[in-house]
Amino acid sequence: MNSWATTDRRALLHFSESTLETFCRYVQVSDTDCEAGGLLLGSVHGVHMIIEQATTPTTWDKRFRYLFERMPFGHETIALARWTASHGIVRYLGEWHTHPEDDPHPSDLDISEWRRLSAKRRDGRPMLAVIVGRKSLYAELVPNLGRGPVFAPVE
Ligand SMILES: [Zn+2]
Fold first, then answer.
1. Domain spanning 3-149: which superfamily?
2. CA distances to 4, 59, 71, 118 from 138, in Å
3. Which of 7, 66, 138, 142 has its CA 20 to 30 A from that of 152?
4. How confident is the model over 76-108, as pLDDT tens digits?
């Protein structure tokens, strides 16, 4: 599950081991687990992306069974620290959150929120949106208008 590609194979996406471990830790296994989420930090190589780190829920975030609302505090501090320490190589690339479903799909709220976040990006790049389900991941490259390409595992 480390390597993913868009269906046309033009863009590759790689998750570091520690990113996948973070996702695993927050999978909504039990009936009472709440949604979790955070930022995706990584490096860009042309159209390809390597996700180095996923920030984890803070005490300020609002976590419910079917909703995760990320608050800026905490996440942005980590993003800025990583950006500075890596001399601008590791930066904000997108967002992740969990869903209590095996094969996750974005809700209407997810899609409108992603579009809003994508439009806010200062570098004009599409935003990577990941949903962590109980059995699989959903990953989409969201432009500020319309829907973007979806990634599928390479192996
Ligand atoms: Zn969602």
1. Cytidine Deaminase, domain 2 (3.40.140.10)
2. 10, 25, 22, 17
3. 66
4. 999 999 999 999 999 999 999 999 999 999 999
